[in-house]
Amino acid sequence: MDNVAPYLSHRVAEIRQVGLDHIMRYDGKPYLWGGDDPVGGFDCSGLVCEYCKSMGILPRKERLTANGLYWYFQQQYPEVCSHINGAKELPPWGECGDLVFFFWKPDWTTEQRISHVEICLNNYQTIGASGGGSDCIDAQVAIDKNAFIKVRPLRVSNVVAYVRVYDIIMDKWFSKEK
Predict the structure, then answer these.
(1) What's the whole-model pTM score?
(2) Which of 10, 78, 97, 104 has the most CB atoms at less than 10 Å from its CB?
(3) Which domains does the chain have, with CATH numbers?
(4) 143-170 per-position pLDDT tens digit
């Protein structure tokens, strides 16, 4: 088994890199509320769903919100989901390609819920679709709101949960039970 580990590690990294290369092609494209395709545009969860589908870790027909993505992975792969509310930095096992989830609490009378998701490029930067909202339904509104798919510094203090994509790829593609 020891001889196989480096090979599997390389294969998992290769699959993850293909997913990242695929998503980086959309850097600079306009944000679109509810968007889930390369032609029409993406919102945050649509972009992350596309990323996950490109690596085969999310069913092709699946379309989930940020909250839905978190709960999907929490139910399917609980061992790769971590809660890190208000941490000063990401855990040391954090890797390029992993998912970070943010919460939104509109006022003090409502419950916190995960409302945004991005993809880690490293422990300091993410790529995600942001800056829009429910009124961002076409390219002109996205331009007016500066709402695009963009690379930004990771705001670790706002991260509520973290999903290790590397481990999901390993399980999905190389698990002996499958």
Answers:
(1) 0.89
(2) 97
(3) 4-174 (3.90.1720.10)
(4) 999 999 999 998 877 788 889 999 999 9
